[in-house]
Amino acid sequence: xxxxxxxxxxxxxxxxxxxxxxxxxxxxxxxxxxxxxxxxxxxxxxxxxxxxxxxxxxxxxxxxxxxxxxxxx
Length: 73
Fold this sequence. Notes:
Strand content: 15-25%
Number of strands: 4
Order of helices and strands: HEEHEE
Radius of gyration: 15 Å
Helix content: 40-55%
Largest sheet: 2 strands, antiparallel
Distance between the termini: 48 Å
Structural class: alpha+beta
Strand order of the largest sheet: 1-2
């Protein structure tokens, strides 16, 4: 099964809101608990990353890395 960014986004929104149901493309899925929802999110994210549809996060020994640039202009 090919997962989509829409599915990942719906899972992410549900985790953020504490809801156990998601809707995407006219489909509704209800998970039993937050652990199942989180497991589904991780599976979808990993498969999207493996397929190249989602960029792999940059990792360092301190976790994800970010670069911020400030300018006085």
